[in-house]
Specification:
- There is one protein chain.
- By secondary structure, the chain is of the alpha+beta class.
- Helices cover 27% and strands 27% of the residues.
- The protein has 3 domains: 32 residues; 129 residues; 196 residues, C8orf32 fold (Roll).
- The strands form 6 sheets. The protein has a 5-stranded antiparallel β-sheet, with no helix packed on it. The chain has a 4-stranded antiparallel β-sheet with strand order 3-6-1-19. The protein has a 4-stranded antiparallel β-sheet with strand order 12-11-10-14.
- The longest helix is centred in the first third of the chain and has 17 residues.
- The N terminus is likely disordered.
Length: 375
């Protein structure tokens, strides 16, 4: 697309506006309407080795660091061993409530060039729901209750419940409710590239202000909250893209050599007859807004339609999950933030000056990379 588009601009300068019409517009039209395949299928497991390294370039007093460790084990991910090294005091810890595993490191004020490095191995595969195959799925009732209640950022009453009831009007089955809510997110929200990180997921404020732009932790959190508000157990799944998309979508993959900024939150909803089902309406919005230079406004656009269909019930296994937790308590935290984060998929650090900005990895000084292990 780029060379042809550039050629159109050169023709405009050299000849006339007619040349821009003749060359640039057909090139844009072709690229924008070309249909692309997006159809994740089960069957192939991939193994990734994920490395996160923090170097505290300008420590101010004693410093604490928390790094998320892949904690999800399911029929689509196996979280394997983790190893680490550091010149501080380190230990593997958990939040103690939601099963969130993390590496904790603390550094005294006199430690020169503090660093901590964590390497985790994870196996993952694509997900795809066979909607024609209904079966009895057992799940711990306590787990379903835990993912049915409201949280600080995910209230399920008031405007959230009102919106969910309106969006699901006429739906009778779990699948119908989930489909209506997924379609509502795609139709009414949008990807806002200027939002820092993955967003904050404050869904009540989004609905009250009518500002429905955001990123994955906003849009998928809204989907999860709306699901819970109409009785569908649902959860955010916080993780990281670790490889390019096999289907050619640049916005649906990550650069393995430099993954800071590749964090991505997905969603799951529990549906009778299918169990926990993969969902990702936020990535539909991302493709619509950022896959091409043109902001695509319709989910039926040939470039978007396969993604819109595929991410209702599936996702690609070029992504690993850390955890499914909201309002995560950080063990040993002593800072003014109360030892809690809304979610944990970024490195977190605190020192005498306060909490470091995890959305600025070059200032924070951390790197994330991955390599696929063959065989």
């Amino acid at each position: 697309m780029t060379p042809v588009h550039a050629f159109g601009r050169r023709q405009f300068i050299a000849n006339s506006a007619l040349a821009l019409t003749a060359y640039a517009l057909p090139a844009i039209s072709f690229a924008a309407t070309a249909e692309r395949k997006f159809a994740p299928r089960l069957g192939v497991w991939r193994t990734f080795e994920l490395t996160t390294r923090v170097d505290l370039a300008k420590p101010q007093g004693a410093t604490q660091v928390w790094l998320p460790i892949p904690s999800v084990n399911s029929d689509w991910q196996q979280s394997l061993e983790s190893t680490f090294s550091s010149n501080g005091n380190t230990k593997l810890v958990s939040d103690g409530q939601q099963g969130v595993r993390m590496l904790y490191a603390e550094f005294a004020a006199d430690v020169a060039q503090p660093y901590v490095e964590l390497t985790s191995r994870v196996r993952t595969q694509n997900r795809a729901t066979d909607w024609a195959n209904m079966q009895t799925v057992q799940e711990d009732p306590a787990t379903l209750r835990a993912y049915s209640v409201g949280t600080n950022l995910l209230p399920i009453d008031g405007i959230v419940r009102k919106t969910a009831l309106e969006a699901t009007r006429g739906a009778r089955t779990d699948i119908e409710k989930a489909q209506k809510l997924y379609d509502w997110i795609v139709a009414n929200t949008f990807r806002e590239p200027t939002v820092r990180g993955c967003g904050e997921g404050d869904i009540k404020t989004m609905l009250e202000t009518g500002n429905l732009g955001g990123k994955c932790a906003d849009l998928n959190a809204l989907f999860v909250g709306l699901c819970r508000a109409v009785g569908l157990p649902a959860r955010d799944v916080y993780g990281l893209r670790v490889a390019p998309s096999a289907f050619g979508y640049k916005e649906l993959g990550g650069n393995p050599a430099k993954l800071q900024g590749a964090q991505h939150c997905r969603a799951e909803v529990f549906l009778q007859g299918h169990g926990w089902v993969a969902m990702d309406p936020a990535d539909v919005a991302k493709v619509m807004r950022q896959e091409t230079a043109e902001w695509i406004k319709s989910p039926q656009h040939p470039l978007v339609a396969p993604v819109n269909q595929g991410l209702f019930g599936g996702w690609e296994g070029n992504w690993i999950a850390y955890n499914t937790a909201h309002d995560v308590a950080l063990p040993f935290a002593q800072g003014a933030h109360g030892g809690q984060v809304g979610f944990l998929m970024y490195p977190v650090a605190e020192n005498a000056a306060g909490r470091l900005d995890a959305y600025a990895p070059d200032s924070f000084k951390y790197q994330i990379s991955a390599q696929e292990i063959k065989g």
